[in-house]
Each structure stands twice: as structure tokens, then as C-alpha cells.
Known about the structure:
single chain; mainly alpha; 6 helices; 69% helix
Amino acid sequence: MLARFGGLNAVLTALTAVTALYFALVVFGNVTDFGTNHAFVRHVLAMDTTFGDPDVTWRAITDPALVLAAYLCVIVWEAATAVVLVVAAGSWLAVLAGRSTADSARRWSSLGWTMAVLLFGGGFIVIGGEWFQMWQSEDWNGLQAAMQNFLVAGVGLILVHLPGPPAARPGPHAEQRPG
Length: 179
């Protein structure tokens, strides 16, 4: 029994749970302190704190409705990611308890971390950082935080896809070993 808590499945349980909690807290913060990150999205999309080069500032989005829609899409994506990772964490706990195999937990974690990669890698690093030139802003540059989240999700994806020994699902005829 103790071996279950020192192996890769335990690591994946912990990393999935921490990532799920992080996303849940991000959503909570975005809902309860809506204005702070709304201002962030507004400034990034407006490109109003970048170098001001007209060759790129034509990309700016300043329409309040579009900015609000973009921010709401981010919050909904974060909430969906949190839900998927909570399900994944629960699945990993079932694996540790010996009630399930890792197949389902791996799929849920993989989906959740892929969603995180798409948000932080695709949304913040690629679109925010490059298309909207967020890297030029001293005040509204979220690239470091995006990279941190992208890397956590990337490490999770690597770990969850490491080959491991096949695990038999516990059942009435499964061999029970003392813990």
C-alpha cells in the first residue's frame, strides 16, 4: 500500500490536484476581482503600453464589447480547465485507493493540461505576447506568469505520458497483497 504513495501515480495525483486548485483560485479571483484582470486584458488588446509602432498597432482591439467577450472567454476556459483537472485529481485518488486503473485519470489529466497549454501557450504567449506585443509593455506584461503555467502543464503532460507498467483493475479475482 505504501508503495502507491511514492510512485508516479502519487506524483501525478499531487500535480493534478495542485493545478486544479490553481485554476479554481484563478477563476475565483477573476470573478470576485473582475476589474483587475479585465484591465490587464483591455491594455494588452489595446496595445496602449507597447512601443506604439504603427506597423503593428493596427492589430489593437479597443472595442469594449470585444474586450469583455475575450475576457469572459478566458474565464470560461479557465473554469472548464479547473473542472477537468478536478475530475482528473479525483480519478488519480481512485487509482491510489486501488479502485481504478490509471487510464481514465491519464486521459482527464492530459485533457486538462492540454487546455492549460492552449490557454497559456497559445493564448497568452503567442497571441498576447507576440500578436499584441505584450512583451513590449513594462506595465501589462504577463509573459513570465504565462510561461510558468505553460511549463507546469508541459511537465504534467510529459509525466502523464511516461510509459509505465500495465496495471490490472482490482476486482473480485485480483490478487490482494498486504499493504
